[in-house]
## 1
Amino acid sequence: MKNALNTSEKSNHKELKRKILELSNSNDWDSALLEWKVYEIYKLDDWNDNETCLCGHYPIRNICILKNVDNNNTTLVWNICVNQFISEEPNKVFTSFERISSDLKSWPCPELIKLAHNKWVINDWEHDFAISRYNKKRHSEKQINRRIIINRKILQCLKKTIS
Ligand SMILES: [Zn+2]
């Protein structure tokens, strides 16, 4: 499947730690991690070149920009690497995004719904509807059609917005 996530791929942990520490104020790994927040996540469009993760992994197309809140350093990391030490959220978002891409009737995860709402890709009502229907087993045809409309919008939310 095109663009499928391959979570079994190994990232270079040691190299990633070394580079993150270089960009952090703290020399201690555990406290250095506290300096980093996920700043932006996006998926490269077909016409974008591949990127390289901070750890050296290439090619990557699911991008997380991390920002150090203490010194304002930013860095570009693969979602699989972010998942291992800073936050599972981007990985959940990308996985859910892939699922919707291949099946518009599937439910977006709450993390993806919130991201789409934060970017105003979906409005308050659509956000509340998607959150309230999440994990419900039975849906009317009308609700499924509504979900498809919302999912089409959500598929816009991983476009790159920063340069
Ligand atoms: Zn990496």
## 2
Amino acid sequence: MSSLLNVLKDKLSGKNVRIVLPEGEDVRVLSAAVELQASDYVAPVVLGNQDNIKKLAEEEGLNIEGIEVIQPDTSDLKAELVEKFVERRKGKATEEQAQELLNNVNYFGTMLVYAGKADGLVSGAAHSTADTVRPALQIIKTKPGVSRTSGVFFMIKEDKQYLFGDCAINPELAASDLAEIAIESAKTAQSFGMEPKVAMLSFSTKGSAKSDDTEKVVQAVELAQEKIDSENLTDVVVDGEFQFDAAIVPEVAKKKAPGAKIQGDANVFIFPSLEAGNIGYKIAQRLGGFDAVGPVLQGLNSPVNDLSRGCSSEDVYNLSIITAAQSLQ
Ligand SMILES: CC(C)(COP(=O)(O)OP(=O)(O)OC[C@H]1O[C@@H](n2cnc3c(N)ncnc32)[C@H](O)[C@@H]1OP(=O)(O)O)[C@@H](O)C(=O)NCCC(=O)NCCS
């Protein structure tokens, strides 16, 4: 974990990247903001009620001097952001609805990013994934060529680092979605210094079982390869369908998938469904002792990332560093 963060911190040093933390009234978030403010890596922009935040800081002995704190409902920026929101939503929100929505810290914070007044956002310590992510999907939207955002976790233990996706966003996935997520995850892995070997996971290895679900993964591998060829992504390897052991244990790969491009050395794992991905990363975290960093959302025009509600102040700090690094890409 610390080696990944150290590389990112080097990149961020002196860049003054502004990350919005909408949940400033949560002590974990405010503590992380104080630590970020004291660092040279990220300038936090904290949202919430000014009085509540002051009181919390006093109670917890946190020095918030110098931290930018914005209260959405009384902010000078609100009128401008309301106007931009109505324009962005093109008939999907009236001005009255926008006035109301922009009192919500996640909508206000996401608008700060959209309007270029901040570089990224980290929320979710006190909000569900859906409430954190929805404003980003509606306002920031996906990059050209990406049809859906997805959420990956960096799974880190000692010198081992893997990427797991989609563990956070898409309840329904077609083969074409899985292929897109594989390619986006490979690009995310590359941008964090990994050489992606992407395993498309299933309960079957190279035809050992057959069902609609396994066929979907087989088709996803073909579609991902087509994307690799058309985008000339020469440094990306995708193969499957694999059971997890065939993707990660060389001896098993030799037996179950002798001709495969990945021989037990996969480092990016694409799960066939959100259920599998979400359960899978938590097993690695809780039984395997891996640190799970994320979900890091990929495919958006600007980075917005979601915390778990069980997160610590350190998690808020770390995800802010990762989000800031994404904003430089
Ligand atoms: C992500 C999620 C919140 C979107 O749900 P939703 O708001 O009901 O989705 P909607 O279909 O109403 O779409 C809302 C907007 O987001 C967009 N959208 C939805 N899913 C998207 C995706 N995966 N990527 C990009 N945009 C997406 C829609 O196009 C729509 O945009 P529009 O309003 O401009 O037309 C929902 O899929 C969800 O709850 N996923 C599971 C999250 C979760 O609980 N994960 C487990 C814990 S980590």
